[in-house]
Design a protein that fits this description.
The complex is a heterotrimer of chains A (about 290), B (about 220) and C (about 230). Chain A has about 290 residues and is an alpha/beta fold. Chain A is about 40% helix and about 20% strand. Chain A has 10 helices and 13 strands. In chain A, the strands form 3 sheets. Chain A has a 6-stranded mixed beta sheet with strand order 8-12-7-11-9-10, with helices on both faces. In chain A, helix 6 (about 165-170) links the parallel strand 9 (about 155-160) and strand 10. Mean pLDDT of chain A is about 85; it is low at about 15-20. Chain B contains 10 helices and no strands. The longest helix of chain B is centred in the first third of the chain and has 41 residues, at about 5-45. Chain B is flat, with a radius of gyration of 21 Å. By secondary structure, chain C is an all-alpha fold. In chain C, about 80% of the residues lie in helices and about 0% in strands. Classes of the chains: A alpha/beta (about 290), B mainly alpha (about 220), C mainly alpha (about 230). Chains in contact: A-B, A-C, B-C. At the A-C interface, loops of A face helix 4 of C.
Chain lengths: ~290, ~220, ~230
């Protein structure tokens, strides 16, 4: 029994040793694979709009930040597992996500778009410039009908666990043959190689890919916002009720939410968000 | 425990298991022939053929199935030469990429099972055939193959179950099999335990059926 | 070929490091599996029906369900488990469960189920005379297990454990969801960055083959050493 006791003790000690001593640093998780929101440079360092915005917000909050990389499909579980305290990964604020985590106010908005390779028969789709699914109306319905007809029988690719996947599976565009991928990069690869007829993602993701790879990727159809596409991108945080509102953890999480909201207000007032947005997106995507 | 979720996701998962079963059966069917082919290469007295067969079997058993799928799907997908050729019609579809990878993989394990079955046939059976004047080719088809099949049933049954689990890797190349749909439901509802219970049960159910069918066949064809 | 070189521009050093990581996770998982097996094997062989049930539950489910699902369960369900454990201790400030432990633990549970079956088979094939002799000599159950059964069980298990090791080694390719940089993940990163998946996944296959080859050589040596005198 002595061996087991020693081993058990050793296990406990190593577990405690892995408890971070950074009790006062804010850990922010990002994907690092969704340019221009967040990506990695050649040396593997995290860069992008949200990385710079994170530093700015932490300056306003007055605490040190650590930015942690995390795969998209494990993003929310990692937050709940306390791998980090906040998510800034181009995550749109949706009701579905609000069931498990909470969001700060939105700091930037993005529109989604369909994309094809040049020469596809989907080019020149007859639709309005942009449709907002939350507003609804006959214009939106007509556009959705056009899109449904265009997508019928085609293979549409998008990233797993995104608002884009939710939209394609919502039935708004009928039954589509959806293929989901782990990262946006994989979507781009299969679009370029011809495995996908059309792909759906943030418009800027496609323009960024077209620019960097030189491949003839063309946006088609309207830009989407609202409805399944959520209401802007915000900072994802743990719900205070998760560990109990009266526990030290719950209080800490609630305080973090307040701090981020205040910081975003300040950053917006000082024009920081707009400046960063123009720098990375080429236009003011701030909310 | 969210029972509503369990009830709601059950039909979706059941539907997805049809894809899983399709993948499994096609891969096993093709793999069986591949396995038989390479097993025969191994038992012939030709050193070169034997080494080729051994090399194939060693490679596909010594590397993870995931690597094999990725090489076929992503690796071949990026080679311009393949994209221009007629092969693209097949390799373009993730379904066939997965089937090819699974078939080659199960072929390697099957060839080992069949080889060892061939090599452990009691010589008495073959001698009896020879003494009756049965031509060699006929001995092979009428005596060796049936006996080998019967002797490999337990090990092959195991291989079928391993392949059933292997089909779950199809979800890594966009195929919506049972695991793929389970992954999707988990990532949208954040209730992994409930989904795991259903998806796991469906897999276990299939395992149970396969196990009993093999047992039945073993009894039926015992000698 | 320069892509594979060492140094800043080549991926060679990252791949070597990833290979070491794969080995480290596999070894850790195998050891964790042993711990599980040492717990569940006696349960399986005990006369107590309830213990049998628990042990059979463990081996049947873990061996019958695809590894990906087991890994998802532990990774995505880990938060509930941690919340639960934390509430027992009152509260815990930051439980940073690193990717290595999560991955090794998930694979370890799977490896343990297979090891349990191997140990069970080995114990059942030990000559009954051993049990009778230890009874006659007055050994109690615990002493009998440690001094007589365990050494023989380990020796008899080596061939089948080598199979479990192969399975464990290859299963580590599935834990990229935890973010751990082992061979598969490193190849994925390199392939994405250089847009050359064929090269890097082929290299990954070769790396696994090397690991498999070396493992077989070492295990053969072990078998010879431990079978001396039999």
């Amino acid at each position: 029994m002595n061996i087991f006791k020693k081993f058990g003790l050793g296990l406990l000690i190593s577990l405690f040793l892995t408890i971070s001593a950074n009790a006062d640093k804010i850990r922010i998780g990002t994907e690092g694979a969704y340019p221009p929101w967040n990506s990695k440079d050649a040396s593997g360092k995290l860069i992008g709009f949200e990385v710079e915005l994170a530093w700015a917000l932490c300056r306003y909050i007055g605490q040190q930040c650590v930015i942690v990389e995390q795969d998209w499909d494990g993003m929310i579980p990692a937050l709940q597992m306390r791998k980090f305290d906040a998510i800034m990964a181009g995550m749109s604020i949706t009701d579905e996500r609000k069931k498990v985590i909470t969001f700060s106010q939105g700091y930037a908005d993005e529109v989604a778009s369909l994309a094809v390779m040049k020469g596809s028969d989907l080019e020149g789709m007859e639709t309005p410039e942009g449709i907002n699914l939350s507003l609804g109306g006959s214009g939106v319905n007509k556009a959705l009908k056009t899109i449904t007809g265009a997508l019928a029988g085609k293979t549409v690719c998008t990233q797993t666990g995104t608002i884009h996947q939710n939209f394609l599976e919502s039935g708004d565009v009928g039954k589509v043959n959806v293929r989901t991928y782990k990262t946006q990069d994989d979507v781009n690869l299969d679009l370029a190689s011809g495995r996908c007829d059309v792909a759906l993602a943030a418009a800027v993701a496609f323009t960024d890919y077209a620019e960097k790879s030189g491949k003839p990727v063309v946006l088609v159809g309207p830009t989407f916002s609202g409805g399944a596409f959520g209401n802007g991108v915000g900072v994802g945080l743990r719900q205070a009720s998760q560990m109990g509102e009266d526990s030290a953890q719950g209080k800490r999480d609630a305080a973090l939410l307040k701090a981020f909201n205040k910081a975003i207000d300040q950053a917006r007032k000082d024009g920081v968000i707009s400046r960063l947005a123009i720098k990375h997106f080429g236009f003011d995507a701030s909310m | 425990m969210d029972f509503d979720l369990i009830i709601n996701s059950f039909p979706k998962l059941l539907f997805a298991s049809i894809t899983t079963l399709k993948l499994l059966s096609v891969s096993l069917f093709i793999g069986l022939f591949i396995g038989l082919f390479f097993a025969i290469l191994r038992i012939k007295n030709n050193i070169i053929l034997g080494k080729i067969a051994y090399g194939y079997s060693y490679t596909f058993r010594g590397t993870p199935l995931l690597v094999q799928i990725f090489i076929i799907y992503y690796g071949f997908g990026q080679v311009e030469l393949i994209r221009e050729s007629f092969l693209w019609a097949i390799l373009k579809e993730p379904y066939w990429c997965a089937v090819i990878a699974f078939a080659l993989n199960t072929g390697a394990y099957t060839s080992e099972i069949l080889r060892s079955a061939f090599q452990t046939i009691k010589p008495g059976f073959i001698e009896a055939g020879k003494s009756l004047g049965v031509p060699n080719k006929l001995i092979f088809y009428k005596i060796q193959i049936p006996i080998a099949i019967r002797q490999s049933l337990p090990a092959y049954g195991n291989e079928i179950i391993l392949m059933l689990k292997g089909t779950s890797l199809a979800s890594t190349v966009t195929l919506m099999d049972l695991t793929g749909v389970a992954k999707y439901i988990i990532s949208t509802t954040f209730k992994p335990i409930e989904v795991f219970i259903i998806a796991g049960s469906i897999y276990l159910f299939f395992t149970f059926i396969i196990h009993n069918v093999i047992k039945f066949l073993e009894k039926k064809y015992s000698f | 070929m320069e892509l594979l070189s060492f140094g800043k521009t080549g991926w060679g050093d990252e791949l070597i490091f990833a290979t070491i990581m794969t080995l480290a996770v596999s070894v850790t998982a195998m050891l964790i599996g042993f711990i599980f097996a040492l717990i569940f094997t006696p349960l399986k062989l005990s006369k107590n029906k309830f213990f049998n049930l628990i042990a059979n539950f463990y081996t049947t489910i873990i061996r019958g369900v695809p590894e990906l699902l087991v890994i998802y369960l532990f990774f995505f369900g880990g938060s509930s488990a941690i919340m639960f454990v934390a509430s027992i201790f009152g509260y815990n400030d930051y439980i940073e469960i690193n990717a290595f432990l999560t991955g090794a633990f998930s694979i370890g549970i799977i490896s343990g189920a297979y090891s349990t079956e191997v140990f069970r088979g080995a114990i059942q094939s030990i000559d009954k005379g051993q049990f009778e002799a230890s009874n006659v000599l007055g050994f109690n159950k615990v002493l009998r297990f440690y001094k007589i059964i365990l050494p023989q069980m380990l020796r008899l298990s080596i061939p089948n454990l080598s199979n479990v090791w192969q399975i464990t080694l290859k299963d580590t390719s599935l834990i990229s969801v935890t973010g751990l940089v082992e061979i598969m993940r490193q190849s994925y990163i390199a392939a994405g960055s250089t847009r050359d998946p064929l090269l890097f996944y082929t290299v990954a296959a070769i790396l696994y083959l090397i690991l498999t080859f070396l493992s077989m050589k070492i295990i053969n040596r072990l078998e010879i050493k431990y079978n001396k005198g039999y």
